[in-house]
Write a structure and sequence with these properties.
The protein is an alpha/beta fold and about 350 residues long. The protein folds into two domains: about 1-260, Aldolase class I (TIM Barrel, Alpha-Beta Barrel), CATH 3.20.20.70; about 270-360, Chorismate mutase (Chorismate Mutase Domain, subunit A), CATH 1.20.59.10. About 55% of the residues lie in helices and about 10% in strands. The chain has 14 helices and eight strands. An eight-stranded parallel barrel has the order 1-2-3-4-5-6-7-8, surrounded by five helices. Helix 2 packs parallel to helix 3 (about 75-85), helix 6 (about 120-130) packs parallel to helix 7 and helix 13 (about 315-335) runs antiparallel to helix 14 (about 340-360). It binds phosphoenolpyruvate and manganese (II) ion. Phosphoenolpyruvate (PEP) binds next to helix 5. Phosphoenolpyruvate (PEP) binds near residues 27, 54, 111, 138 and 168.
Length: about 350
């Protein structure tokens, strides 16, 4: 008995440290048969390291399936026994942490709707005190890195050593291609802030649909994510939650096979020499761009002084629209996306306005 337990603990550890770490399973545990069959079909692919299932489901509106509750925990225990796959569930309260641990759940995750609420995160963290279990923390539903980082800090202060991040995209008003906008730059910034911390991508909740899952997963791998959490179901169309985004275990296996797994580095000298040269060019261009932008700001300040002397407003919408229009047209010719050039011009314009503001009001 003692030695089986140790074996399982070491398999949890090796799953946790595996790269890429692949987590899959249904959005929600629905029935015992569904959990066991999903787990067995996932295990059969040989490509999955951890079994996920939502036991308590935070739903946006009442009247939807809110999870099977603690009754589903023994099913996960059984699934683990049959397949050897470590298990992971979402927890949002102290009681859920307790229940999950009672049924030997191996890894806990904090959901996006919990990460936004420091009271809830603190309650989960308090329940974790003195417990040795890895915890994954999803980004909050709103694009606020401080909240995400705050949740990591609360869990870390409770003494949890193994913490990872899950990027599942951010709510945005209006229909976009994605259910939750990926805003990759935020995940990249989080990686920069927390060097060495594992970050997993959840293309299921980003996409909300099957047809763009593969491309999104590939993008995450291209951006050097440490793994993927993808929802799978034995009968996706009839899933009790998130039916549109779930795929069968077999489809998942195909997807994982088709992904091009990239390395962060290769030990080849020619590769590095070529890379260094290109990087040097980029550094040089960045320097020049910065010089030019600084010159542009100095001119903006002169304009600010003129406007001040003539009592003219800083913002002149017609002029700004003209500049933006011209930039977008030019960008197209230069193969720069409209989205990029608009954001770039907005940033430059804002800085310019701030500088003029200073001149005018000093
Ligand atoms: C889930 O993983 O099923 C889930 C509820 O995700 P999120 O917290 O990202 O919405
Ligand atoms: Mn889901």
């Amino acid at each position: 008995m003692e030695s089986t337990e140790t074996n399982h603990q070491s398999s949890v550890k090796s799953a946790w440290n595996k790269r890429p770490l692949i987590i899959s399973g249904p959005c929600s545990a629905e029935t015992e048969e569904q959990v066991l069959e999903t787990a067995q079909r996932l295990a059969k692919t040989g490509q999955v390291d951890m079994l996920r299932a939502g036991i308590w489901k935070p739903r946006t509106k009442p009247g939807m399936f809110e999870g099977i509750g603690a009754k589903g925990l023994p099913w996960l225990q059984q699934a683990k026994k049959l397949t050897g796959l470590p298990t992971t569930v979402e927890v949002a309260t102290g009681k859920q942490v307790e229940d999950a641990l009672t049924f030997d759940v191996d890894v806990l995750w904090i959901g996006a709707r919990t990460t936004v609420n420091p009271f809830s995160v603190q309650e989960v963290a308090d329940a974790l005190r003195g417990v040795d279990v890895p915890v994954l923390i999803k980004n909050p539903i709103n694009p606020d890195l401080e909240l995400w980082q705050g949740a990591v800090e609360r869990v870390a202060r409770a003494g949890i050593k193994e913490i990872g991040l899950i990027h599942r995209g951010f709510s945005s008003y209006g229909n976009t291609e994605f259910r939750n906008a990926p805003m990759w730059h935020l995940a990249i910034e989080m990686k920069r802030r927390m060097p060495g911390m594992k970050i997993i991508n959840d293309p299921s909740h980003i996409c909300g649909r099957r047809d763009i899952l593969q491309a999104t997963a590939q993008k995450a791998i291209d951006l050097d994510f440490d793994g993927l959490m993808i929802e799978s179901h034995i009968d996706p169309d009839n899933a009790w939650s998130d039916a549109k985004q779930q795929i069968t275990p077999e489809r998942l296996a195909e997807m994982l096979t088709d992904i091009i797994w990239r390395r962060e580095n290769v030990p080849s000298e020619t590769f590095h020499a070529a890379l260094d040269k290109l990087r040097e060019q980029i550094n040089h261009i960045d320097d020049e761009l910065m010089q030019l932008i600084s010159q542009r700001m100095n001119i903006a300040e002169k304009i600010g002084a003129y406007k001040k002397n003539n009592n003219v407003t800083i913002l002149q919408s017609t002029r700004w629209n003209e500049i933006l229009d011209k930039a977008v047209r030019k960008a197209e010719k230069l193969d720069l996306s409209e989205e990029f050039i608009t954001r770039y011009m907005d940033a430059v314009h804002m800085e310019s306005i701030n500088r003029q503001n200073k001149v005018m009001n000093d």
